[in-house]
From TrEMBL, chain A:
PANTHER family: ARP2/3 COMPLEX 16 KD SUBUNIT P16-ARC. It comes from Aegilops tauschii subsp. strangulata (Goatgrass). This is Actin-related protein 2/3 complex subunit 5. It is found in: Cell projection; Cytoplasm, Cytoskeleton. Pfam families: P16-Arc.
From TrEMBL, chain B:
Pfam families: ARPC4. Keywords: Actin-binding, Cytoplasm, Cytoskeleton. GO terms for molecular function: actin filament binding. GO terms for biological process: actin filament polymerization; Arp2/3 complex-mediated actin nucleation. The keyword Zinc-finger does not apply. This is Actin-related protein 2/3 complex subunit 4. Belongs to the ARPC4 family. Functions as actin-binding component of the Arp2/3 complex which is involved in regulation of actin polymerization and together with an activating nucleation-promoting factor (NPF) mediates the formation of branched actin networks. Seems to contact the mother actin filament. Its main location: cytoplasm.
Length: 108, 168
């Protein structure tokens, strides 16, 4: 996926989220997609701008990836994930968080 | 300081969403009512556990089930002294878990302190007040340990000065 991070981080994030392997149980597949989403997320500087151009159907998947990022413990990742988490909760509400907690079938 | 605010906001939002508890009698044994998050016998009663890290040292694990939620914290410990102070202070609190009601007597493996909130607690107490308590606890722990460290260093300095005066 060349040109993922350089010019349009929001487009890159959208593409990465679209390709997320929710139905499989293969850990390598999920890890590979997580790496791409992670790169796209870290490249984003303007979080409000990102939400303005991101469709609501991606909010749930993004929340799941945010929790995956928060579990890594790596300081810059956690900083970025915490910032996005706050804004995403404001927009999507607590239901988004609960769906990411309750969904044991489709995990990232 | 900004990351602390974001970290606490994230934990608060996660707890508000996760604290949806209802009474659920034990499925295996009749007339028993156990907190499912502690036993983890039936997977359909458990939600995904969520780990929220602020950095390499501080993290918070939130495990939810149908009738109980377990919150485990690892507090920041910069050096050996803070390590000992945190361990002693949190052990002091954990031993008096009866008084706190929502505290767990032993922290989960790998963490410093754990809370166990059941549906009975949610029925007796306001949900938002429980969450306020936990978030306030996290803020106060850092302050307490800094104060303890300061007082230990001050006492140490005074004692050493007095003791070494006899050699002047």
């Amino acid at each position: 996926m060349c040109g993922t991070g350089r010019s349009k981080p929001v487009e890159a994030l959208k593409t990465a989220l679209e390709g997320s392997p929710l139905k499989t149980r293969d850990e390598r597949c999920k890890s590979a997609n997580w790496i791409v989403v992670h790169r796209a997320m870290m490249a984003i500087r303007d979080i409000d701008g990102m939400f303005n151009s991101l469709d609501t159907e991606y909010y749930d998947i993004l929340m799941k990836y945010l929790y995956r990022g928060l579990s890594t413990g790596d300081r810059p990742t956690c900083d970025q994930c915490l910032k996005i988490h706050e804004k995403l909760t404001e927009r999507a509400g607590l239901g988004c968080i609960l769906r990411s907690l309750a969904d044991t079938v489709n995990t990232v | 300081a900004n990351t602390l605010r974001l970290y606490l906001t994230c934990i608060r939002n996660t707890l508000e969403a996760a604290m949806c508890l209802q009474n659920f009698p034990c499925q295996e044994v009749e007339r028993h009512n156990k907190p499912e998050v502690e036993l983890k016998t039936s997977s359909e009663l458990l939600l995904n556990p969520v780990l929220i890290c602020r950095n390499e040292a501080e993290k918070c694990l939130v495990e939810t089930s149908i009738n109980s939620i377990r919150i485990s914290l690892k507090v920041k410990q910069a050096d050996e002294l803070e390590n000992i102070l945190a361990k002693k202070f949190l052990r002091f609190l954990s031993m008096r878990a009866e008084a706190f009601q929502v505290l767990r007597r032993k922290p989960v493996q790998g963490y410093d302190i754990s809370f166990l909130i059941t549906n009975y607690h949610c029925e007796d107490m306001h949900k938002h007040k429980l969450i306020d308590f936990i978030v306030q606890f996290m803020e106060d722990i850092d302050k307490e340990i800094s104060e303890l460290k300061l007082s230990v260093n001050t006492r140490g300095r005074l004692v050493a000065t007095e003791f070494l005066k006899q050699f002047i």
